[in-house]
Amino acid sequence: MSHLIASQKVIQHYLAALLTEDESPEPAVKPALAAERKAELNKLLAQAVPVAAPAVVSPVIALKETPKPVVPKVAPKVAPAPTLSKLVEIAARASLEELQGSSAPAILQRDIPIAQRLAEPSPVATVAEKSYRHGRFQALFFSVAGLKVAVPLTELGGIHELGDINTLFGKPRWFKGVMLHKAQKYNVVDTARWVMPEKYDAIVEQGLHYQYLVLLGASNWGLCCETLIDTITLEPEQIKWREQEGKRPWMAGLIKEHMCVLVDVDALIDLLSRGLDINA
């Protein structure tokens, strides 16, 4: 019990730092006020209890856009929130349809030329260019070591239960290995170790119980997660968007209402492919 409490305190401290750090140039905050904000956030985290997610439209993972005929506008029908098992089924089916027939091997660090590893990141869409920033969108919420993470459904490659993982030598510590699922190889990321390597210790490791692999886009990268929370509909104004290029490129923004990090999937894939962690 003591190691779980210690682990929770570590996560609370880390999340408080993310939520209170200025992501864009703003007037300086007085030290007393900043301390008060952090104290209030830690108090909320300690007292937080699961709450029912608002009713959402059943998720539709749009992996490929097709022309849509012009039809008269009708009022949308709101369906009840899907269960976690249904969510896994939908996401996994969409992922298999997208990746069916693909047999691309897992990316190994030794297969990447040194010049490519040290090269500048390949161009990826900036936060401002993301389509979901300009309107209502749905995101999958999941948790890792007490930290909540959200991925836009349009950039979700699928969800699989975590199976046997083949470890590889000479890889970064956050690289757990390769998981084979229906002839498809997935590179498995120890999400907690990748996100907060400086706070990952034996206490945090003992408290982890990974159950699922959340796939990123059409890539063969997947993030380990402990719990699938739900899909939630978000408005752009609910998110504090990352405005500074080059600062935490893997993070599209912060959803303060849910105390959650929104992932920039393209940027995260780019970092993982180059063997870099959050400190890059």
Automatic annotation (TrEMBL):
Superkingdom of the source species = Bacteria
Which InterPro entries does UniProt cross-reference here?
Answer: CheW-like_dom_sf, CheW-lke_dom, UCP020479_CheW
Instruction: Report the PROSITE patterns cross-referenced here.
Output: CHEW
Return the SUPFAM superfamilies for the record: CheW-like (SSF50341)
Query: What's a Pfam family this protein contains?
Result: CheW
Residue span, CheW-like domain: 136-274
Q: Which SMART domains match?
A: CheW (SM00260)
Name used for this protein in its record: CheW-like domain-containing protein
Q: Identify the species of origin.
A: Alishewanella tabrizica
